[in-house]
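Human: I'm a chemist; would you kindly supply sequence and structure tokens for a protein?

Assistant:
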Amino acid sequence: MKPTLKTNFTSYSPVALISGPFFHHLDHLAPLCHFLDCPLLTDDSTTFSLGKKFYPEVDIRYVTINLRSLSDNYNLIILSTKHAKEELQRVYDALNIYHMRYCYCPHGQSDKGYYDKSMHSEEGQDIVLFYGKRQKNLIDPKGTYFIVGNFRLAYYEKFKKELDQSINTFLSPLPSQKTILYAPTWNDFETATTFFDSWRELIETLPDHYNLIIKLHPLLEKHYPADTYTALSYDRCKPNVRVLFEMPLIYPLLDRIDIYLGDYSAIGYDFLYFNRPLFFLGQKKVPLHACGKCIHSIDEFYQDLNNLQLELTEARTKEYHNAFSIFE
């Protein structure tokens, strides 16, 4: 029998952990916890509040993290933070506790590491989860790994009615017309965000017969708070503009989107499922960009909004199935 997501973990007692202000990890760890029937612990009040609001089916607990107590009840910690394993392992070694293992769940399928292999978060983990064969083949892991498929999409499809209601309430009222999503990444050591040069012009020159949703990357707020809160002040500055920050849901949002504009965010790979037009800003080219059109200015983008990109339909389908295996 082919192993399923849950049977891969039968020899473990897993628990997921979000420590600190990383609420964007919710949309990855919460669906995983639902299908594994394990709790998700967080010591961050915002993460807990958003988790209870948007993922009520998941056992999310607001706790003070006690690592000794954690080791008494679980033997596997699931995380979406690159260096969490080495940090936790140092503490457990100091406590003479050696049975704990760590599982890395990626917070998105992206092209991170395409130019700089050191950006791969999967290296050195005890267990790595891959959405599909694309990332697995790129990393070529030497240790234990599971190809788990698109469990986030499966979670959305299972609770579609409730999640659609949540996102509709969050976005209401937007005019009944086509909607653009701009989802920039943040500045890491490999690729630069297009946020600073683009967001204001996107809003100011937005055609009246389109909606615009700007989804801010949470780490922009951490590293560039002044710019982030300036952009947030433009939320609802027009009836057809929304600027989102503390909203972790991805697939319910994408289901509402007609046109995607991004740079290097993993959300672009998620949007492949819907096989709708994608546009990309940014100087560096990555594999995902072959599934849409690269543009050089906001003016060029708005002039090309009617481009349905029908010639890329097959390429998007192929790349989606390469990136995401079937969830079982």
Observations:
- The first strand starts at residue 14 and ends at 18.
- Residues 160-171 form the longest helix (12 residues).
- The mean pLDDT is 91.
- Residues 83 and 124 are 10 Å apart (CA to CA).
